[in-house]
Amino acid sequence: MNSSKQSKWYVLGTVSLAVFMAMLDITIVNVALPDIQKSFTVSFTSLQWVLNAYTLVYAVMLLPVSKLGDRLGRKWVFLGGLALFIIGSLADGLATSDTWLNLARGFQGIGGAAMMSLSLSIVTASFPAKQRGLALGIWSSAVGLAVSGGPLIGGILVDTWGWRSIFWINVPIGLFAIIMGLIFITDRARQETAALDWLGLLLSALMIFGTVLGLIQKEMHPSYAWTNSHLIIWFIIALISLGGFILVERHVKTPLVDLTIFKSRTFIGANIAAFTLGAGLYGGFTYLSILMQNYMGYSAFETGLKLLLISVFTLVLGPITGLLSDRIGNRWLISLALFIGMAGILVINALLKTPFKWAYLYPGFILLGISNALVNPPISSAAMGAVDDRHIGMASGIINVFRQVGISFGVVILGISVTNGYNDKLAHGLSQLTTLPALIKAPLTTMLHKAGPFAGQQIFTDHRVAAYRELPVFNEIKHLVYQAFNAGMHQGDLMIAIFLGIGGVVALLLIKDPRSAQK
């Protein structure tokens, strides 16, 4: 793919805009859920599929659309995905039921996957090696800004125009991106004409589908043991599909994924770093948002404004980071960034206590913001630089799969950590309340455990708690719940730090820079 000196920057702007929309739709919906729930009068469990339908289809389609881009041309599959995304967004905004909305969100996820996966390979192919770091830095700025800025943007749209506006805003922006893409993105001849690896395609889809759906089931039903049949069946499907996928790809003439790219230690290291980044930093955003909204009392808009402290570093440092990776190497920059993120969450862990205050969060947020800004460009650069040009589409799909599955994994594991810490502290605290009669303590304990750590202030405004408000120990019970959530957050913070620390060590051990070693 060759672009003129001027048009390649328009190409970068176009794909960055598309990526921003695709990633934004993973996070922006969170703040709109209460309004959507009122519109359709459904349970919160049912409503979670507004998030999960998009995430599930998005993850499953990342590899197939990368392969289609290699076969049909990246420009046309990218623009086709953008068109599907626009149609899905329009259907989202017109939804009259939660089922309609969930189906439209899944359809939208197909387009989001095409935009996200192919954008990275389009940028990589459009820029020469000496400018690639800067270009990937700008591309990564769009990713980081969308992930951390979603709650703020969503809050503004919902408060001003209602929840349907978070989907309809994609229509004019998407149409503009399509026009820009038609004008400026040029495509090379199709790379492959051999028969498509349909069996590999099916097995890869089953593998990712089983993994992500199993994690979603665990997220939606925290009480399920990992051996519960509702979970284990999906993980078994994923494991069998993985084994079958490896066998097929080793013997088919034109594989969906050329497994030889995993001979590169650098490529493996970059993908593990992407997974731990998703699990730790991006998965952690969910629980930091819950802390600020449900326990500190911030509105969706105020929460987004606080999280802007993280995303603003991406705007400032993102492009510079690309240049830094060219100078000091991807290996050191990825490790440094992940260790800075680990330090940031450990600072929050050290400061956090009840009553919760913003002063306990912002020092750590600054470090998390620096980490987020520094880490994405070198991860992308390392992965794409570790494979031959003919494999960059495939590599783009794989690293995005690792990042997205990492987010799903992190949300579940961190949720388990927070819940365990909360339940242990709550059980111990309630057992110490000797002034509370047993007839009252038993149902109250059951209710608080059932509500879970993420109900926050809402549990104390619930009608079921009305009978307890006049008790002399009511404020003590409320304080205990806050202390329990604090204990849960401490466990979650340590898990985030472990994820980021593992990523930093793996990057240091596996990733090699081109100047120091061969791929």
From TrEMBL:
SUPFAM superfamilies: MFS general substrate transporter. Coiled coil: none annotated. It is found in: Cell membrane. One of its GO terms (molecular function) is transmembrane transporter activity. The chain crosses the membrane at residues 9-33, 45-64, 76-95, 107-127, 134-154, 166-186, 198-216, 231-248, 268-292, 304-325, 332-352, 358-376, 397-418, 494-511. It is a multi-pass membrane protein. Its main location: membrane. The keyword Nucleus does not apply. GO terms for cellular component: plasma membrane. It comes from the Bacteria. Keywords: Cell membrane, Membrane, Transmembrane, Transmembrane helix, Transport. Belongs to the major facilitator superfamily. EmrB family. NCBIfam families: efflux_EmrB (TIGR00711). PANTHER family: MAJOR FACILITATOR SUPERFAMILY MULTIDRUG TRANSPORTER MFSC (PTHR42718). This is MFS transporter. It comes from Levilactobacillus brevis.
